[in-house]
Every structure is written in C-alpha cells, then in structure tokens.
Design a protein that fits this description.
Layout (H helix, E strand, L loop, with lengths): L2 H11 L9 E4 L1 H9 L8 E6 L4 H13 L5 E3 L4 E6 L2 E7 L1 E4 L8 E4 L2 H6 L9 E3 L5 E2 L5 H7 L1 E2 L5 H7 L2 H13 L2 E2 L1 H10 L8 H12 L4 H14 L1 H5 L1 H4 L14 H11 L4 H9 L9 E2 L5 E2 L3 H15 L4 H13 L15 H11 L3 H12 L11 H15 L7 H8 L4 H17 L5 H13 L6
Parallel strand pairs: 2-5, 10-11
Antiparallel strand pairs: 1-2, 1-8, 3-4, 4-5, 6-7, 8-9, 12-13
Helix pairs in contact: 6-8, 7-9, 7-10, 10-13, 13-14, 13-18, 14-16, 15-16, 17-21, 18-19, 21-22
Length: 462
C-alpha cells in the first residue's frame, strides 16, 4: 500500500472526529514519500503522531472501531498504541517532548507540541510530517525539506544533544547516509567522530541490530559504503575492532589490495544474505594476528583461517547472533581456504576429500563455495581462478548424484556386535566413514567386516 492510499483511507474513516485535523504521518514514511514518489510502497511499520494528549491511544481505538483492525496494543508508559491494518503495523503516539538521563536510552516522556515532537527526533529528514486530512507536508524543525532537497544527513537540533541522548543515532546516521546516498553535513560528521566512543554505553544487541540493517541492504555497494563510513569516522574501531585491524594490512603476491580493501571487495561480490555478508566481512580477520615473513621476505598468513573462525565465533557471540548462525559463519570462515590448492579447474583435489567436505558442510557446502568464489574474484587478476568454483560445483553435483549413501548406522553396530556405549559406536562409525570416503562403493556388509577385527580384538580405537 502507498502512503497516499493509506492517507485517503484514514481520512475517510476519521470524518467527523476532532482527531482528523490533529493527526499526521511522521518520520520514515514521509521521508520516503518525498524521495521516491507517490507510488512508493510503505514498509511494514507506519508512524502516526497525534497532537492531542493521549492521542495515540485515542486514535488507535477509533481506527480499530471504524476500520475493523486488530485490537489496539497500548503502551501507557510511552503514550503509544498500535494496530494492524491490511498487513501494516500502524504505530500511534501523541506528540511529545523527551528528556534523557546520561547514557540511558529510555527517555522521560510528556505531551508536547508538533515542533517539540520534531526536535526530539534524530535527523531533519526524519522530522517531517504529512497531515492526514489534506496531505500537506509540514517541517516544524525547519530542516527536513532543505536536507532532502540537498541530499544531506544533518541532526534536526544540536548534534551534541542529539547524540548524547541516544548514541545509537551515530550508527543511524551512517545507515541513512549509505542507504540514501546522502552526504553527512560537516557539523554532524564532526560530532559523530567526536562522540563515537559513546557507543560503548549502548548494548551490543542494539548495535548488532543497527549494523545488521546495514549488512542487509539489497545493493552491495550500499553495504560497502556503510563500512567505509564506519571506518572513516572511527566507529568501526569501536564496534568491530577485529575488522578495523585489517586497514592498511599489506598482503602477498596473490593480492593487489590491502586486507581491508580486499574484504570490502569480497563483500561487494557476496550473496545478499546476512550469513553470506557476515562471512565475507569476517573471512580474513585472523590475518592481523598471523602475518609473518618467509626467508625470501614474502608475506604469509599461515593459520589465519582457523584463528579467524574462532575470532568470528566470539565476535558474533558478543553481538548476540543466534548460536546456529554464528556456528555456520564461523565454519565458513574456517573453510574458505580449503580449495586454494585445487587448481584452476578444481581438479587437484581427490574425490575422497570432496566427500569429506560435503559430509562436513552438508547443505551449507554451497554457501562455502559462494564465499570461496567471492574471495577468489577479489584476488589480484592473475590469481582469480574464475573457473575453479564453477568446476567444483559440477564435481560436487556429480558426486551427489552418482554415489551411494553411507548407510552404516549405530543400530547396525549394536545388532552385529552388541556394542552399546555411544562413544565407542561413534568412534567406530567414524573409522568406517573414513574408509568409505576412499572407496564409496563399500556397502554395509563390507564396512562391518572391515571394523570387525577392531571389535573382536578389543583394540584401542584411535
């Protein structure tokens, strides 16, 4: 649904109510309407401000009554309420003024004028309103229309106050600038640089939510632009020092860029998913701690993949990334070097090794190949091996379609040998699987016979 369509619907529903002339669309919906035109589809959440005490609750109840929306959810502490209408979450709040205690994101809230409501917001572009009754645009803070016209991000009020009240706005400035392709005006930029360490007072979960919103931009160029801005303002060193440590880190002959610029190019080439972009961003973070020199003076980073996997896991845990996701990203980081010696067409690696990798990564194998391909394409031109991953994908597909499955189970061992301890069963299955990797034609009976001597002689299982 477009904003103009929603406005007409609400204006008709509010006919005869005193709330009609006091209700306004606010924030991002108005900004995007001005930037992208009347046909621009609304996002999932739409903010509506009501210049009446307790107006948020009152308007939500009236809209519910007249348009048969979901039952209003009311938050009396903040004077807000919400309903769902045709899949849109409408968030209602009375116009308000806020005051913050130092390093506390939760404000003390009271009713305020429309101008006070505008000045409590972060940036001019987000402090614009559309009157629901007639669609007119209001700019109570006096900056929003100017900033949109000139394509700049500027605090709606004194940057010192804006950022000290809520340091998360430092990240929001970066996100809006990179997403919209706007410049950050000098006074706001200087305040971001000066106040960047205030982010230490924000929870890692909140920082992660804002940062992941940057990673999830559909256009990879916007993601890269955001990371560059974070680096240039010094914020990257505060929130992701592991990535910032790659800046200026010179590499070996296989690379034409330093480790940071290489990482950004891998990010540019990666798939537009959160897992893929996290893996691209973190794939080389182990290099800052493993750089060494050979006898001939050339650079090497032995073990950076394994160290990077451990670092990635801890970083993602710090950001409260779900366990399954951080395990997968860490595994991708740890495996991004496994095909480096497989040659231009991926032929210098045995089928048995490919089977081991396919068994380890299972359906995530294709994510690993995507990362390897993005990494290869960011090397120096003569070392990019553009055919390697294409050929490896083909080999993996052929192995999957042509080979029988490993079909020995713990139940088979229990029935054949009477083994019941889970540790020994697991060890025997692993021995059988390693043998099967070398000869996938071995069936269940043959595998049982191969491990029978270990059981009957009670040999120590390695």
């Amino acid at each position: 649904m477009a904003l103009t369509e929603l406005r007409l619907l609400l204006a008709e529903a509010l006919q005869g109510s005193e709330l009609l002339e006091k209700s306004y669309f606010a924030g991002g919906a108005v900004r995007d309407y001005l930037l992208f035109g009347t046909g621009y589809e609304l996002g999932p959440d739409v903010d509506i401000a009501v210049e009446v005490p307790e107006g948020g609750r009152l308007l939500a109840e009236l809209i519910h009554e007249r348009l048969n929306t979901s039952k209003p959810v009311v938050y009396n502490t903040f004077g807000t309420a919400s309903v769902v209408l045709d899949g849109l979450s409408l968030e209602f709040v009375h116009t308000r003024k806020e005051s913050y205690r130092q390093h506390d994101r939760k404000p003390e809230v009271s009713f305020g004028t429309l101008k006070e409501d505008a000045l409590r917001r972060d940036f001019g572009i987000n402090a614009l309103y559309m009157k629901i009754s007639d669609g007119s645009i209001l700019d109570p803070g006096g900056k929003g229309l100017h900033d949109i016209e000139n394509r700049i991000i500027a605090c709606v009020d004194d940057p010192n106050r804006v950022f000290s009240e809520d340091p998360l706005r430092l990240l929001r400035a970066i996100r809006f600038a990179s997403r919209l392709g706007f410049e950050i005006e000098p006074q706001t930029y200087e305040a971001i640089v000066r106040d960047r360490e205030q982010l230490e007072h924000i929870s890692q979960e909140r920082i992660a939510m804002e940062f992941e919103a940057m990673l999830l931009e559909e256009e990879a160029g916007k993601v890269v632009a955001a990371i560059r801005l974070l680096a240039d303002t010094g914020i990257l060193a505060v929130i992701l020092p592991e990535v910032d440590a790659l800046r200026g880190l010179t590499q070996n002959k296989y690379h034409h860029l330093d480790a940071f610029e290489h990482t950004l190019l891998v990010l540019q080439n990666s798939e537009p998913t959160l897992i893929a972009r996290w893996a691209a961003l973190l794939h080389d973070i182990g290099k800052a701690h493993t750089k060494s020199f050979k006898a001939d003076g050339s650079v090497t980073f032995i073990g950076h993949d394994k160290l990077g996997a451990t670092m990635a896991y801890e970083l993602l845990r710090r950001f409260s990334v779900p366990k399954r996701s951080r395990e997968l990203i860490s595994k991708l980081v740890g495996g991004h070097m496994v095909f480096k010696q497989s040659g231009e067409e991926g032929l210098h690696i045995k089928d048995s090794t490919l089977l081991r990798l396919a068994d380890r990564y299972k359906d995530d194998l294709w994510l690993l190949l995507d990362l390897v391909e993005a990494d290869n394409s960011a090397h120096a031109p003569q070392y990019r091996m553009p055919k390697q991953v294409v050929c490896l994908r083909r080999r993996f597909a052929q192995l999957k379609s042509n080979l029988p499955r490993f079909n020995l189970t713990g139940r088979d061992l229990l029935q054949e040998f009477g083994i019941s301890t889970s540790r020994k069963v697991g060890e025997l299955l692993q021995i059988a699987k390693q043998t099967w990797y070398e000869d996938p034609g071995l069936g269940k009976k043959q595998l049982l016979e191969l491990i029978r001597p270990l059981v009957e002689n009670d040999k120590e299982i390695p």
